[in-house]
Amino acid sequence: MKSRTVMSLLAAAVLLGAGIGLAADQAEPVQNPLDVIPDKMPFSVPYGAPISLQRAQATAQAAVTEATKRGWQLNIAVVDSGANLVTFVRMDGAQLASIAISEHKARASVKFRRPTRAFEDAIQKSDLKYALTLDDMIASRGGIPLVEGGKIIGGIGCSGGTGSQDEAVCSAAAATINK
Q: pTM of the predicted model, to two decimals?
């Protein structure tokens, strides 16, 4: 009697295992988004001549004007097309930790030729954790490349508010160049 029960259980286990294997074979494979090969190179805006000090200061001032209008105290960094700091403004009352963050956002936007929001979205929305392994990446909004004549001339980074506040101020300032 015991052998009959054991045989029945063994047969059920074999059939169950075969059914699971069959179901797995019939399921469509999930494609890894990193395996998709785009036809065109994304974020391929070429680098141009570096932004001048005068234009960098004017761009930073546009950011200060926007932040002041909204009552926000931010740190604002403008870098050139080589990701080198050209000008920096720390508004009265802006938090100290955001000094380095604003510079990092500006540099990353130039080095990677895209707004830093792209990295935030990659990690938060698309779960692409590999982005965390990239050197000099920052996954926080508020870094925007400055593009003139189809070429990157610099980048602006703002920090001290929420990511959406930083991005709003950078976008307003970048709009004075990115036409």
A: 0.79
